[in-house]
Protein 1
Amino acid sequence: MRWLDALARRPRDEATVADRMAEAYEASRRGDYARALDIWGPLARAGVPRAQNNIGACFSEALGVERDMVLAAKWLTLSSEAGDAIGQRNLAALYFKGEGVEQDYARALALYRAAAEQGDAPAQDMLSWMLLEGEVAAPDYAEARRWAEAAAAQGQAPSMTRLGMLFHNALGVERDPAQAVMWWRRGAERGDADGQAMLGAAYHLGAGVVRDPVEAFVWLLRSRAGGSPLASQFFLAVRAVLAAEQIAQSEVRAAAPLPGPTS
């Protein structure tokens, strides 16, 4: 590649690509996107895929520049075509939403898959969702589970919750309430509001776990604070069976930091 040849001709004491990228990331961490873009710009024009992604992301999120989705798509396309997994994932999001490009779910799916196959956890999570929901792609429960497991192994809490739903609804697997609760707990303990809602519901109903209204309310309170619409389906019913002191106890527990993941 030409940019590698050019770098090879530079003096040995000149900063390497990795050094420059690290400097740019540090600037962006401080919120100094103007400085980061000053560094990423020459690298992106020289063909460094991750720098191209980062410029595209800045145009997409209006970080240091005015939001320009057409330019975002341009830079992300270059990054994606060079094989950068994050560039592929970010470009997939543009095709999914129809921002800067014509909406194209099939193209989004292909890009998420390309990134997922390179091990990108958020892409694996999104691919799993698309294959499970069946709204923008043909449903494939086995593949949805495979990618959810891959994403969950990398700590993606929404994929943990999704695995719980697969076992709860018997989608491509035997129905297993205990397995569903195990996955919901993993997602809930990592802050996924939907997982917290479903774990609260399981404690409310005694499905896959011993019934415990107080524990149910603790998780439903956390879920509601996290914005999950699922919590409202059970919230009032659980609250109605609790005494005032139990409600107060639950509110104190729900306001405390989440317990560390149990597994």
Protein 2
Amino acid sequence: MKKNSEDANVSIFIFSDTTADYPATAPRKDLEILPMAVHIGNDDYDNISTFISAKEFYTRMRAGEMGNTAMVQPYMAEAKFEEKLKAGYDVLYLGFSSALSGTYAGCARVAKELAAKYPERKIAAIDSLNASMGEGLILWYTVNKRDEGASFDELCAYVDHIVEKGVALFTVDDLTHLARLGRCSKASAMIGTLMNIKPVLHVDEQGRLMPYAKVMSRKKALKALVDGMEERMLPAAEQKKVYIGHGDCIDDANLVKKMVEDRFGIADVEVGDIGPVIGTHTNAGVVALFFLGNAK
């Protein structure tokens, strides 16, 4: 186990949740992903104990099935956190944007209660103010910083800094599912569909989904993601990792990857699936670009 610099006998265990869409290739030592359930048709999955692939999920959504999600249950978070505290770990939880789910609030409340119960240990909850692989990107930086030997307090301060820099830009084929689940107005969704507008959205400094641009073709929407990155990004040398997520549209995601690599010369650009929990809200066809910027 990796030791932190405050106590030679203490390691830091990191938790996050399935909304992070954390790639299987990313480092996972002393890390656990808490499940958020997704319901589609007559089936329930958490992709921890019961599984549905992104491909199958989006195929079913394209066929007209509707999805719904449930947040991480506080009792589960309490059991998981307490298990690691009892084992001698300090615990850091990085959560899905509090503007989009009650998961962070519930887990933060649990962390506060456990801090009082285990005063000899450290436990903290940090709001990623992000979603999908934007949360996953912050998690990637967090795990790597921990594994470099940061103390618990140093790690928390670092994560707070990275949260402020985590930028998420994404485009969807239409706003129907975002509107259905209350993520945008039904009027905006209807007008956009009628006019064949391809919206580009971002996650703002409060972790909310907000409009960024409106264009009239899919190709222009994908280019707008990369243009937005150019406007907001920290220098390319500071982009240790860039994530591109997609909802069963790998060719579009790879096109964005090529544009990012060609324009900025960034070496580590990884494409991954946007999983069913986030996909319930965005539907198939979503493409998202995640990087570090001067401002969210």
Protein 3
Amino acid sequence: MLRLLGILAAVLCAITATVVTFPGFFRVERLYPIAQIVSFRGILALAFALAALLALLLAIARPIRGFAFSIAVIAGVATVANVAVLASRGGLGTDPLPTKTDASIRVMTWNTAGPATPPDTIAKIAVAMDADIVALPETTIETGERVALAMRDLGHRMWAHHAEDPSTEWDAGSTTLLISPELGDYAVIESSLDGTSNTSTVPSAVAMPVSGEGPIVVAAHAVAPRPSYMQSWRDDLRWLADQCGDGNVIMAGDFNATVDHMSGLGVDGATLGHCTDAAVETGNGALGTWSSALPAVFGAPIDHVMATSQWRASGSLVLRSNDESGSGSDHRPLIVQYEPAG
């Protein structure tokens, strides 16, 4: 009887390990609590490794040796599988951004956690990164304008745009978008401003080029997948996928989702809609942008920059040098350099 229970337990452990390692295959990547578990694939790999080690230690006891060895094998295979997934997305990350050319565009996104991050800090980093587009979830237009003024004083002019949801308290109800005048004049579309078509709880800003030329720019912010917001979170990801049509689109922001959660939402091999994730494409897709209190390899890569096929990502950077600066934000900035495709 005990032997039968041991076999049953080992089978259940194997099924569980397979599901959390490959959630997209089973189409459970956006279900609670799988969505929360797979957000931290680095920690998941470490947990499996520790479980394998513990099982090997327990195998010293003869009565449970067979069961312990079974668990050790299952956990060991799961560790290797998760490390392989992380490695395919970049592992420990790649080198700094390539040299910027006249045709290059740099896009930066940073969830600033509202007043936790001083405008001068945002401006200095954006200027140092030579950013042409800056998406700032949880940032009011007043803060965004102060950032733009600080950037102007540093010789880097930007226009500030925003969208807000008055029903959402605190600065999470506002998303600011800065765009360089060199890209032309932009305006946020009416449905972003009045909320008739937007993400559910925390707003996104869709900006169109006034001239009709240049990319559509989307500053994205999806609600966090807390148990009471799971359906809203799923709806937000689908809405963001719809914004990545087959036109010319650059989207950046806090998606509160990793690429695992976007499984099935991409078109023709893209990550989300017709957009492809730049960090994965350039070898930084495994580095966590949240929380900055964790080492990047154990964090959740939930902030993204992505674009349609009109753009080719030539480099990306998850900025970790700011972790100990006391900016106050629990997110890391993500910067991507794009080149026109073809």
Protein 4
Amino acid sequence: MAKHNKWSKVKHRKAVVDKRRGKVWTKVSKAIIVAARHGGPDPDSNLALRYAIDEGRYANMPRDTIERAIKKGAGGEDTSQYESIRYEGYAPGGVAVIVEALTDNRTRTIGEVRLAFSDHDGSVGASGCVSYLFESKGQIVVSGEGLSEDRVMEAAIEAGAVDVEFIGDDETPAWMISTEPAAFQTVKAQLEKAKLPVSDAEIAMVPATYISVTGENAENVAELVEALEDLDDVQKVWTNAGD
């Protein structure tokens, strides 16, 4: 979970998507519906919708499922009043946790989030208690056989990236390309135009520093994250846990 272990995290997230595909697709569909309802059905003029569609694509969501969600949101078929909420708290070992949710029932969601924290020796804190430890960044993963560092670096610099870091392993070369949030979509589009294989991309809450957790604390943090991600209303979970 540390900075040097990002590729393991990316591969783990892919494994989680495969294991819980139905739940992940439901979460993405909700994000697409909300984005289409508030910003319209055109992803070229609705960045929130563009991000949600891309997330569905990286989760191997069928195109017709994505299109149905767009129509449902833009056409007003779904009348649920979803709102975005951020919860902040602490996991064992002093690890900071940020939870992003889409919910139509605040009482239900906070109850479920609090229970997940308490069941894993954590606690929900006040708004702003840990968010200052993170900053918003675009993160784009480029991976695939035959890629060279020079090619990736050149394309990333030309696209306007702020950082490029090798995160792969012996089996699969991979790079994490970081951007300013406002430049995220432009940089990603330029990388795709350069024929680089983008395997994952998101606007992430990235810790300024990481807290080392091992042993039982590390297990509890991992179990807490899994419990939170299993909640229907939870979209994203971020921590500053490291090795």
